[in-house]
Amino acid sequence: MSRRVLVLDTTLRDGEQVPGAKLNIYEKLEIAHQLKKLNVDIIEAGFPSSSKGDFDSVQRIAKEIIDGPMITALARAVKADIDAVYESIKYAQNPLIHIVLGTSAIHVEKKFNKSKESILEMGIDAVRYAKTLLPNVQYSTEDASRSDFEYLWKTIEQVVKAGATMINIPDTVGYAVPEEFGELINKINYRLKNLNDKVILSVHCHNDTGLATANTLIAVKNGATKVECTLNGIGERAGNAALEEVAVGLKLRSSYYNAHTNVVLKEIKTTSKLVSTLMGLDIQVNKAITGDNAFAHSSGIHQDGLLKSRDAYEIIRPEDVGVENMELILTARSGRHAFKDAISKIIHKNIENKDFENLFNNFLNLADLKKEVYTHDLYYLVDRYYFEQG
Ligand code: KIV
Ligand code: ZN
């Protein structure tokens, strides 16, 4: 039976770390309501100890977003941060404390200037403390993909014994490559199952070398049952794994991954647009699933194939992810088939062959002068042609 993979959306926390993308409380609430419609399992609403504004937004989301996703927020492994998270999410129906602490030598020695033992103690203490406040605690081993495996495992083992209910393996700087990351998750999953099979194994991948989605999907294939993502892949530096790519990837190849999410795919386009508009972050036109060109076809060969059978060049139905329809872009590379399809929406009568050929030639002459031929250009071409014919 296909495994259910939980989706944690961190658009409002990691996504909001994008320079210039700061949202006010009302904008955050609007996105949170939309994330509920998208049916994500967990909303990471912010980092409450960072500012009063962030604390207030997380608290408001925790109070308002009911009968839906779990609400979480981020804390470093210190009491003050954990208290801030607890105070902001305690009103949620299903709250989760998220603690992060590094496990790589770079983090332990260079960032904290501490020993591995004292960092491990800090993590265990943080989890024990969080457990006195709430039953659900996620522990993120920051920079896991650059950590010594035995120290990483020791950390996981100890924080699980201290009560962590979710273990999140971040590829914090996008260093991992899919095969290696898959093996890492496989090894952790195997040991974790023997230690405590109730604990959820999660991944959080960054996109510094464009591999965030691939690393997330290979992790699912190797046993991860929770993924952390953002809409449009926004996030720190080059961003995070894009929720729409992971959710659609799992849907499209569900038997390969033997896994599925409960994301309502039809809400993807609306959510993506809302995030882009409110954060003021344009989506690149060729962005998978949510870019303007993701379902636009411009070459004549493709347009001809699509008009015969959509399967020829369309593996995802645009309407399934909330995009109105596929689009045939008329350019100098378009063929007779696509042109005929477009003008049949303008001329509602039989077009004589001779007229069609003349119109098609006029279209190609115009297309050679422009990047794209729009519907208003077609009206002009058709009107002028029949006017000149008398
Ligand atoms: O990238 C990272 O390591 C994080 C953690 C807080 C999960 O964002
Ligand atoms: Zn991150």
UniProtKB/TrEMBL annotation:
<dbReference type="GO" id="GO:0005737">
    <property type="term" value="C:cytoplasm"/>
</dbReference>
<protein>
    <recommendedName>
        <fullName>2-isopropylmalate synthase</fullName>
        <ecNumber>2.3.3.13</ecNumber>
    </recommendedName>
</protein>
<keyword id="KW-0464">Manganese</keyword>
<keyword id="KW-0963">Cytoplasm</keyword>
<keyword id="KW-0432">Leucine biosynthesis</keyword>
<feature type="domain" description="Pyruvate carboxyltransferase">
    <location>
        <begin position="5"/>
        <end position="269"/>
    </location>
</feature>
<dbReference type="GO" id="GO:0003852">
    <property type="term" value="F:2-isopropylmalate synthase activity"/>
</dbReference>
<comment type="pathway">
    <text>Amino-acid biosynthesis; L-leucine biosynthesis; L-leucine from 3-methyl-2-oxobutanoate: step 1/4.</text>
</comment>
<feature type="binding site">
    <location>
        <position position="206"/>
    </location>
    <ligand>
        <name>Mn(2+)</name>
    </ligand>
</feature>
<keyword id="KW-0479">Metal-binding</keyword>
<keyword id="KW-0808">Transferase</keyword>
<dbReference type="GO" id="GO:0003985">
    <property type="term" value="F:acetyl-CoA C-acetyltransferase activity"/>
</dbReference>
<dbReference type="GO" id="GO:0009098">
    <property type="term" value="P:L-leucine biosynthetic process"/>
</dbReference>
<comment type="similarity">
    <text>Belongs to the alpha-IPM synthase/homocitrate synthase family. LeuA type 1 subfamily.</text>
</comment>
<feature type="binding site">
    <location>
        <position position="204"/>
    </location>
    <ligand>
        <name>Mn(2+)</name>
    </ligand>
</feature>
<dbReference type="GO" id="GO:0030145">
    <property type="term" value="F:manganese ion binding"/>
</dbReference>
<feature type="binding site">
    <location>
        <position position="14"/>
    </location>
    <ligand>
        <name>Mn(2+)</name>
    </ligand>
</feature>
<comment type="function">
    <text>Catalyzes the condensation of the acetyl group of acetyl-CoA with 3-methyl-2-oxobutanoate (2-ketoisovalerate) to form 3-carboxy-3-hydroxy-4-methylpentanoate (2-isopropylmalate).</text>
</comment>
<feature type="binding site">
    <location>
        <position position="240"/>
    </location>
    <ligand>
        <name>Mn(2+)</name>
    </ligand>
</feature>
<comment type="subunit">
    <text>Homodimer.</text>
</comment>
<keyword id="KW-0100">Branched-chain amino acid biosynthesis</keyword>
<keyword id="KW-0028">Amino-acid biosynthesis</keyword>
